[in-house]
Each structure stands twice: as C-alpha cells, then as structure tokens.
Write a structure and sequence with these properties.
Blueprint: H1 9-38, H2 48-59, H3 78-89, H4 94-97, H5 104-114, H6 117-128, E1 133-137, E2 155-158, E3 161-172, E4 179-187, E5 198-204, E6 210-216, E7 228-239, H7 250-286, E8 288-289, E9 292-293, H8 298-332, H9 334-358, H10 370-379, H11 387-400
Bound molecules: flavin-adenine dinucleotide.
Length: 401
C-alpha cells in the first residue's frame, strides 16, 4: 500500500466497509455466478443473486462511489475513488454490484456532464438507480477505430429525426438483457473539420432496426450475460432531441469520457494483479516440486519479487495520475493518464501470466480465476485505445516539450 498517497479518512472508512462487504458477499458469489453461467438454461440471463447484492450494497451506502458529484455519488475525488476501484478490481464481478462498472460509469458521466435535463431524467436517473444498463458504440468493424476520426457510421438528418445505418462491434454490455440505451458515435457533418464531423446520439435498444448480430469472444470468454457484441443499425430512427450536447461534439465528449475511466480501469487492474500475486505466493508456499515448495526455487522467487515491484510502480503512477487529474483536469493530466494506460494493462498481464505459470496447468483452466482475469487484462491493451496510440501521443508530447 502506498504511503505517498495516504487515504483520506472518508476513503479509509469506505474502503474498510467495502472490504468487509467484498469478503462477506462478493467473493462467495463468484462461484454462484460461474455455476449459473455454465448452465445452458441460464446463458445470457442475469443471476438473481446479482440484483440481491446490488440492493444490499445500496443499503450499505456503497453505491455510485465513482461519481464526483456529491448529489448522486459520494463527492469523492479521482484520487479517493482510485483506492476503492482497486478494492473492487480484485473480483471480476464486484464493480457492478456497487453500480461502478464500465461502460455504465463512463456513460453516466457523459449524461451527467453533457445531456439535457430531459435526457438525464429518462436515462441517467434509472442508470444511477441501477435499474437499467447501457452500452457505448464507437468501434466499427470496417475501419481502424483506434483513430476516432475514421468512425464513419452515418447519422443523417431527416426532418425531426436522425437516421442511422451501419455496423458497430465490441459494444460492451449490449448483450445484457437489462441494456436499454446505447450511446452511438457517428458522422453528422461529413464536410466539417476532422474532429468536428462526429456526434453522439442516444439510441434506445428497442428501436426498430437495432439488432445484435453476434456476441464476440475474448480468448473464448463471451463475458455473458453482458457480452461484447457486434451490432447492426438498419434505418434506425431517433428524434433529433436524442443528440447529446451539440452536433460535431462527438470527439470532445469521447475525450472527456476517457480521463476518469482510465484511472478506474487501471486501478481495477492493480487490484486484479494484487489478487493474482497473492494466489501466486499461496501456491508457491504449498505446492511441492522436486522435493521443495515451488517458492524455494529461484525462478518462482523472481516471478514473485518482480510482480511485487511492478504492482507498486503501477499503483504509484496511477495514483499520481489521479492526483494530477484532480488538480489539473483532463488536459493537464493527459500525459500521466496516457502513461498509466500504457503501464497498468501490461503490468497486469505480466503478473497474471506469472501466476498462471506458478499454478501449472490448473492456472489456465476454469478452476482458478486467472485465465479469465488474463483475458480481461489483455483486452485493456486495446479497449479505450491500443497501447501504440497512447505511446505515440506521449512521445509526441515529450518531443514537443
Ligand atoms: C474486450 C473489448 C471491449 C471493448 N469495448 C468497447 C466498447 O464498449 N465500445 C467501443 O466502441 N469499443 C470497444 N472496444 C474496441 C476497442 O476500443 C478497439 O478495439 C480499439 O480502439 C482499437 O480499434 P480497432 O480494433 O479498430 O483497431 P485498429 O484501429 O485497426 O488498430 C489495430 C492496431 O494497429 C496498431 N496501431 C494503431 N494506431 C497505431 C499507431 N498510431 N502507431 C502504431 N501502431 C498503431 C495497434 O497495434 C492497433 O492495435 C473493445 C475492445 C475489446 C477487445
């Protein structure tokens, strides 16, 4: 734990409460959720225990912790919330139980910061209450979407409506039966400057013409019941009142959405890596190979020691980025936020990979959470922008300075 960024008293209190709730309710639920999901009769359905635990977390005051706005959230700074995101990140099922999971968190921030009062009443209120879920559809199969200026799905004005046609993919959460609303990025002004062509519109999931083409799998994991799906938009009509903010502001909103979200993702990865290291240590202590516990072999010791170093490094950097985001805003913290997006997913992949190795064949199986954790960590070398885009942006900034 970092002594350079001590927790505030209120974060300490929330973290202790969160830790107790996780131990009592969340960790035991992991096996229940996994069993539910393995039953073919339950595929793409929500385990009833999830809603029970959400209600319990809400009653315990562990709800919407991510939102800096004190009216709807807890008024925590990015630095304060970062510690709680790390705690939740230890379990792949935890964040949703506290209504703190992506992509809803980013979508709620967009609605909170950019949506009209009517849009907020219709979509933000039920999202904050955890009654519905949402998805964010930007990436397209036909263009290199790491360059957001390539996003090409046409959103064409027709009277009082916008009409959408095209494909999106990797739309996380759109496989969830509770997903009611999509934030879709597309082109409203094809002749405008590159960064003013796109807009974001709210598209209700039940709109005629919206369909899920297929769920995508990451190394075989489909992450049901939320999923990452390919979607089709065939002459989908929404009123122009569904435009978020103003025409041409898609790029600006996408940038604003990503600052705090990257801190959340990276801190969750640090929690995930901590758990993997704990598992690595426990296994190395007890499993005997060549007459001694695996931990007595130098190569296992290297795996443990390097993992400890890398987690500490990544945590310090991420807390530094969170502090910078609080003090300087998105623009001022841009380089540090880019750095953590480069460092944390690679660190988590390396640590989880070592933990799998120390576990032997079992480490790659469904018996430990490591393989699924690795798939999640590896995804984050692409989701929210691939490593290379962040590396290039950071290098440009250094060269300019
Ligand atoms: C599990 C998962 C969940 C996701 N969830 C969502 C979601 O909810 N909503 C959504 O809209 N998208 C989502 N994505 C998509 C993700 O954001 C994109 O995959 C990512 O932005 C890259 O876009 P692309 O796949 O089109 O890759 P491309 O743009 O085709 O890029 C391919 C590769 O080119 C290389 N490259 C690109 N730019 C550079 C550069 N400047 N220098 C050097 N090399 C470069 C990189 O190696 C990059 O990986 C998700 C992805 C995954 C895997």
């Amino acid at each position: 734990m970092s002594t350079l960024f001590p927790m505030s008293p209120r974060t300490q209190a929330l973290d202790a409460k969160l830790a107790a709730f996780m131990a009592e309710h969340v960790m035991p639920a992991e096996a229940v959720f996994a069993q539910w999901d393995e039953d073919p009769a339950h595929r793409w359905q929500i385990p009833p225990l999830l809603e029970t635990l959400k209600a319990r977390a809400r009653d315990a005051g562990l709800w919407n912790l991510f939102l800096p706005d004190p009216k709807h959230g807890h008024g925590l700074s990015n630095l304060e919330y970062a510690r709680l995101a790390e705690r939740m990140g230890r379990s792949l099922i935890a964040s949703e139980i506290f209504n703190c999971s992506a992509p809803d968190t980013g979508n709620m921030e967009v609605l909170h910061n950019f949506a009209s009062a009517e849009q907020q009443a219709r979509w933000l209120t039920p999202l904050l209450a955890g009654e519905i879920r949402s998805a964010f559809a930007m990436t397209e199969p036909d263009v290199a979407s790491s360059d957001a200026t390539n996003i090409g799905l046409p959103i064409t004005r027709d009277g009082d409506d916008f009409v959408l046609n095209g494909r999106k993919w990797w739309t996380t959460g759109a496989g969830d039966p509770r997903c009611r609303i999509l934030i879709v990025m597309g082109v409203t002004s094809p002749d405008a400057a590159a960064h003013r062509r796109q807009s974001m519109v709210l598209v209700p999931m039940e709109s005629p013409g919206v369909s899920v083409v297929r769920p995508l799998r990451v190394f075989g994991y489909d992450d049901a019941p939320h999923g990452h799906v390919e979607m089709a938009f065939d002459n989908v009509r929404v009123p122009v009142a569904n435009l978020i903010h103003e025409e041409g502001s898609g790029f600006e909103i996408a940038q604003a959405r990503l600052g705090p979200g990257r801190i959340h993702h990276c801190m969750r990865l640090i929690g995930l890596a901590e758990r993997a290291l704990e598992m690595m240590v426990a296994r190395a202590r007890t499993r005997i190979a060549f007459g001694v516990p695996i931990g007595k072999h130098g190569m296992a010791q290297e795996a443990i020691a390097l993992s400890r170093c890398e987690i500490e490094q990544a945590r310090l950097l991420t807390l530094q980025a969170a502090a910078a985001l609080d003090a300087l805003g998105n623009k001022g913290a841009k380089d540090l936020v880019g750095m953590i997006k480069i460092v944390a997913p690679r660190m988590a992949c390396a640590v989880i990979d070592r933990a799998m190795q120390v576990h032997g064949g079992g480490g790659l199986s469904q018996d430990h959470f490591l393989a699924q954790a690795y798939a999640g960590a590896r995804s984050l070398r692409l989701a929210d922008g691939p490593d290379e885009v962040h590396i290039a942006a950071l290098a440009r900034s250094m060269l300019k300075a």
